[in-house]
Each structure stands twice: as C-alpha cells, then as structure tokens.
Design brief:
The structure is a single chain. Strands 2, 4, 5, 6, 9, 10 and 11 form a 7-stranded mixed beta sheet that branches. A 4-stranded antiparallel beta sheet has the order 1-3-8-7, with no helix packed on it. A hairpin with a 4-residue loop joins strand 7 and strand 8. Helix content is 0%, strand content 56%. The protein has no helices and 11 strands. The chain is globular, with a radius of gyration of 13 Å. By secondary structure, the protein is mainly β.
Length: 115
C-alpha cells in the first residue's frame, strides 16, 4: 500500500517560516520524482516545487528564492522549507510522487498565512 504522509502545516504570520514533511512508504522512493503542489480555494492545483531522482529542482516563479525542496532517499522523505511566507501562499499543500505516467498523492496539509 502506497502512503504519502504530509505534516508541518499550520497557521503562521506573514514573513514567517514553515517546513513541510512528506514521509513515503510502499514505493521505491529513490526512483520517483517528488513534488509539492498546492491548491487555494477556488483555484486549480499548481506545482510549487519538484525534485527529481538526480536531485535537480524546479520551482514556481512565485516561490523562487523563498522555498526550498530537498529529499533524503534513505529516510524516504521530502521536505519543503518555506520562508518569507505571504498570505497568497495560503493553500492546502500536497505531496506528489511521480514516475512516468504514475502519480501518487498525499492527503494534503493546510498552510494559512495571516497578514
């Protein structure tokens, strides 16, 4: 059974920081690209950051310079470090594991940034 368990969300003031964690089980973690997506109320789910098998990363323009994604294959964990948070970052954040046409998703963790 594949499980992606997110944690670390919460309520934070603007300019604050949060670190999201996603612990994965049931798949060969090191063979998957890992990503964080988010979905704000009334909006489509969007890619925030991705880290591939080779460690290369990509970020949404809106979070570049503020967010960092990193992974530990031995711990089967991916993190999203979020700094200088803004109210516009408020959303449910989802962890994703991708390999070719296969996607697995976590249940999401709420991040709320107050002004």
């Amino acid at each position: 059974q594949v499980q992606l368990a997110e944690s670390g969300g919460g309520l934070v003031q603007a300019e604050g920081s949060l670190r999201l964690s996603c612990v994965v089980s049931g798949i060969a973690f090191s063979f998957y690209a890992m990503g964080w997506y988010r979905q704000a109320p009334g909006k489509q789910r969007e890619l925030v950051a991705v880290i591939r098998r080779d460690g290369s990363t990509n970020y949404a323009d809106s979070v570049k310079g503020r967010f960092s994604i990193f992974r530990d294959n031995a711990k089967k964990t991916v993190w999203l470090q979020m700094n200088s948070l803004k109210p516009l970052d408020t959303a449910v954040y989802y962890c994703n594991a991708n390999q070719f046409l296969t996607d697995y998703w976590g249940q999401g963790t709420q991040v709320t940034v107050s002004s």
